[in-house]
Amino acid sequence: MNNKTKNAAFAYSYLFPSAFLTLVLGIYPIAWAFRYMFYNYKGYGTARFIGLDNFTRILQDIQFWDSVVNTFVYAGGKLLLSIPLSLLLAAILNRGLKGKHLLRAVFFMPTVISTAVMAVVFFTIFNSYNGILNQFLIKFNITSSGIDWLGPKHAMLTVILVAVWGAVGNYMLLFLAGLQNIPEDVYESSALDGANKVQQFRYITLPMLGPVMQMVIMLAIITALKGYESIMVLTEGGPAGKTEVMFLYLYKLFFPLGGGSATQVQEFGYGSAVAFVSALIVGMISLLYFYASKRMNRID
Amino acid sequence: MKIKNILGNTVLWAFLLIFGLVTLVPVVITILGSFKTNVELTTGATFLPSKWHFSNYSEAWRIANFSTYTMNSLIVALSAVVGTLLVSSMAAYVVDRMDFIGKKIYVSMQAFTMFVAVGAVVLRPQFDLMVKLNLHSSLWGVILILISAHASIFFILVSFMKGIPKDLDEAAKIDGSSLGRTFWRIILPLLGPGLGVGALFTFRGAWNEYLLPLVFTMTKPELQTLTVGLANLKYGISAASQTHYMMAGACLSILPILVAYIFANKSFMQMTAGSLKG
Predict the structure, then answer these.
(1) Is the Cβ–Cβ distance between B35 and B52 less than 8 Å?
(2) Which of B38, B84, B118 best probes binding to A when mutated, by most A CB atoms within 10 angstroms?
(3) Cβ B123–A33 below 8 Å, yes or no?
(4) What is the CATH code for A44-299?
């Protein structure tokens, strides 16, 4: 064996565990979904090829499109609250402040804790009946009876607030990293020209943060659109589907929840088609944002 | 001007403190709540426990099965860390130091798995596959799937690998060291900081993972991890009388990662900020 083939053999043998695992457990499942989205397959019996029938069924599936609308409300709410808040925190912490390292560590803390575990905790806090928050609201006479935080009227808001709690620290840190790349002398010279802090923020920080902002918002959009773990534990998509988001609906097609509304059955073929359409929706919105933000940058 | 400054600073600090409190309170509530009785938790409206019930932990540990859940979480998280670091450091070494046919395809495949979001659909074929291999009746199925999702750690290790001078490889080669020996004896020890960051992140991900162990252990309580066991308490018939176990269980899950965070918060944050450039 000459040196070259020996080296190649070494390279492939070291690459093998990684490539094999990725192919079998990462790529194959996606290919599986690609195949079964054209089939009628419920997990038992034989799978029957039905062409595009699953996709015409999606077009008429009101529950799915409701979940798409819910996803947009959820993602929109999460973004509108978390992005400005995290940018503001980052801008404040970027100015040499006493205790900024401690504050930064505190704000980032939620990102290291399990979403599912925090959803359980938030459930005991927001629980409409014996929830900790309602106990205090009643104790201090802020409300006479508890607020139905997880009821049909407020559930979406609650779910969004929980998501914002978990996300702000992460985006703050990314913004902070971007802000630290803006040279200090730009601020100094603008201060000499008499610019105040707000003007500096508007005319220096925001434009110079452009690319980072674009990336963070993109990341936030994708995460918000595909997130469902916390909602699943907190509300299971309820009450009456009020917080059912796209990827939770999808999850239930593969693993029906044993909860109150056990009308759902396994739908592997149809579920694969829903997965494809959902992934397409996420992809299209990200692309749309990407081009829109690029154009906005150019106009600036 | 001076008054305006003081006013501005006050508003600024009030905002920071309020937001800091909002961030901390849910975790503090969990820690304090884990020492309260169920009645105090559900009706008491107290901040500090009126009496500290340390027995919540021993009861949760024994009666509510949290000893099993903790053990399973540890097994899953530690195995995932070792496996992920091993698999991705070997791949990162050959990808960064050698040229071979198919390298580009391999790298794009890793990038692809990072960016495609198809949700729970992948869990199904993964589960069926593990049933066929008879790996679904132990935690090995979960561990292997966690290890298979190592794309981000691979890319991090490649960037750390680039920081190790190639002269070292050359010198080792001249001294007659084989490629494998060079990797294990020279490169891997120097990759320490990268492995540390990778370990931290894999541990966090595996320890906090919920959906994957949930799907794999739905009918096997003896294999459930902390996250799954804890969330199941919420669905149980006796859920209303077990809030104190929920809090104690949540603490068991939060505290290890929180302690790690207190000591290594720079590494946690460095990683997130680093992903911006990568």
Answers:
(1) yes
(2) B118
(3) no
(4) 1.10.3720.10
The pTM is what? 0.89
- Report CA-CA distances (Å) from A258 to A50, A271, B235, B242: 29, 18, 9, 20
Q: What is the pLDDT of residue B241?
A: 73
- Cα–Cα distance measured from residue A22 to residue B108, given in angstroms and rounded to the nearest whole number: 12
With an 8 Å Cβ cutoff, are A255 and B269 in contact? Answer: no
Placement of tokens 């049909």 in the chain? A152
Q: Which residues pair with B19 in a beta bridge?
A: none
- Residue of chain A minimizing CA distance to B30: A121
Closest residue in B to A181 (Cα) is: B277
CB–CB of A165/A110 below 8 Å?
Answer: yes
Phi, psi of A38 (to 5 degrees): -100, 10
Token pair for A47: 């799978």
Mean pLDDT of chain B: 88
* Residue-wise pLDDT tens digits, A200-247: 888 888 888 888 888 899 989 999 999 899 999 999 887 888 999 999
With bands split at pLDDT 50, 70 and 90, how would you rate the model's confidence at A80? very high
Q: Which of residues 223-252 of B touch A (CB under 8 A)?
A: 226-227, 230-231, 233-235, 240, 243, 246-247, 250
pLDDT of residue B141: 93
Quickly tell me which residue has 């939620």 as its tokens. A110
Short-list B120, B137, B117, CA closest to A268: B120
Residues in A closer than 8 angstroms to B204, CB to CB, are: 112
Q: How far apart are CA B29 and CA A131, in angstroms?
A: 12
Q: What is the pLDDT of residues B147-200, one digit of tens each?
A: 999 999 999 999 999 989 989 998 998 988 899 999 999 999 999 889 998 998
Cite the DSSP H helix spans in B34-65.
38-39, 55-62
Phi, psi (degrees; rounded to nearest 5) at A40? -95, 105
How far, CA to CA in Å, does A99 sit from each of A40, A103, A178, A272?
60, 6, 20, 50
- Domain spans, chain A: 44-299
Tell me which residue of A284, A18, A215, A226 sits closest to B109, measured CA to CA. Answer: A18
CB atoms B210 and A115 under 8 Å: yes
pLDDT in tens, B211-269: 999 999 988 889 999 999 998 888 776 666 788 888 898 999 999 899 988 888 888 88
